[in-house]
Design goal:
Blueprint lengths: L9 E6 L5 E5 L9 E6 L13 E3 L1 E2 L4 E4 L14 E2 L2 E2 L4 E7 L20
Antiparallel strand pairs: 1-2, 1-9, 2-6, 3-4, 3-9, 5-6, 7-8
Length: 118
């Protein structure tokens, strides 16, 4: 049995050094306020203080959301470096949960070939 679950991960374009930190995605993220996302940097040298952590988001617009973190003293965000002209995986946000008062995004994470809810 194969799963059709596809997390709505999004590539990170920028993260501000601000309070709160604002994350900008390269495309429309489609997230709603109250979603919890994991921040993943598969490379070193970029705002590593956030790497692997989970945060509840507040949506600001189609490509920006904030997380409740003061990142003013964190390392600056850098996009994925190129080593020997070989691109590596980009920094991304991965939805992991949402506040139970809405649970509206559960159906958004279903694969396109199997639109059922879990």
């Amino acid at each position: 049995m194969t799963s059709s679950f596809l997390p709505a991960s999004k590539i990170i374009n920028n993260i501000t050094q601000a309070n709160p930190a604002v994350i900008t995605t390269t495309t429309n993220h489609g997230y709603l306020t109250g979603l919890f996302v994991r921040i993943v940097f598969p490379y070193t040298g970029s705002m590593e203080q956030l790497n692997g952590n989970i945060y509840e988001i507040t949506v600001l617009n189609n490509t920006d959301f904030s997380i409740p973190v003061n990142s003013t003293k964190f390392d600056p965000f850098n996009t994925a470096p190129l080593w020997l002209f070989t691109p590596i995986q980009e920094a991304q946000t991965i939805p992991v949960a949402e506040i139970n008062s809405s649970i509206s995004q559960a159906t958004n994470n279903i694969g396109p070939n199997n639109p059922r809810t879990f």
